Amino acid sequence: MREVVQVRSGFAYDCDVLVIGGGIVGLSTAYAITRAAPGTRVTVLEKESGPARHQTGRNSGVIHSGIYYRPGSLKARYAVRGAAEMVKFCAEYGIDHAVTGKLIVATEREELPRLHALVQRGRENGIPVRELGSPQITEYEPEVRGLAAIHVGSTGVCDFVGVARQLADASGAEIRYGAQVVQVDRRPALGVAVRTARGDVVRGRVLVNCAGLRCDEIARTTGDEPDMRIVPFRGEYYELARPELVRGLVYPVPDPAFPFLGVHLTRGFDGGVHIGPNAVPALAREGYDWRTVRPRELGATLAWPGSWRIARRHWRYGAGELHRSLSKAAFTEAVRRLLPAVTEEDLLPTPAGVRAQAVLRDGTLVDDFLIKEGARAVHVLNAPSPAATASLPIGREVARLALRALGTG
User: pTM of this prediction?
Assistant: First the structure.
């Protein structure tokens, strides 16, 4: 019979706060805890062999301004604040970054009202924006074409993996890599005990769940029903063979019905230009290509009623994204709306990412950061983009909740 991992009264704790997940949010939380309450013992368990192997390390590296997000929402407040803090953090620690600014470009007449709405939203969020007519677009991006655009000067790029490593080093936390959590025993009067796949048991007073693509699974393992499920969406990217075609960052006008920003052009801090992502259902939590299929994980996604409701509600949008995934020519045509000079030969495949998107039972795509408390537990249940940008403020908020649960906040 398998031994049941338990928290026992009188047993020595290995740490005060046990963080599951070594992405940028989990490491920012560890960093914030040790700064807010020096002497607090923090242990971070990460199943991979190093930090930031999933959402943090597989995105376009953009420091988002916060222009897209509903005024007053966590995304708006934390992205605006986090962007400024991220630039300062990178400068302080010598991490690669650049504040490049970006264009959001309308290429169809029906997009103009949405573009004007973004101008208003940016101003409500305290973000300076400049409205551009068609001739002015080429002042910023000579090869980009559109009917109108807005320029957002506070957008930038950075090495988020480098940020995560620095947070890990500066936190003073014990970071355990190769530590996949398979079992959690939570006793509200005592604390939590966690067993890893290696058979190690780690005991803490408070659990913080920053498991990203597996955050809902960890919440349920802890005994808390999160009332959502992660539905993974893969974002596929290409690299531009002629990076001289793009000077900075260029985005389409997003569809407000979706939390995805559309295929965009991103000049990174290394001078390369990434194009993407699209958004297609992944067949595994870490399904970075069509060949990766995990029947148990796919079955769990299909068993969630919200997955079917998304499919019924947004099948036209999904069909377009799927077409662009399977056809490089279709993907190229989407890019050519912004960058007419691009050809299929200009697009070189590069690694994909997977967005951990929280979906409610009724099929609602959760559009804000979602953090829930349980007994001796804090669960970060929706933290896709712009979570990397907002990671320092998110970390402070999660740390506040964790310290309150610990009784020292």
Answer: 0.94
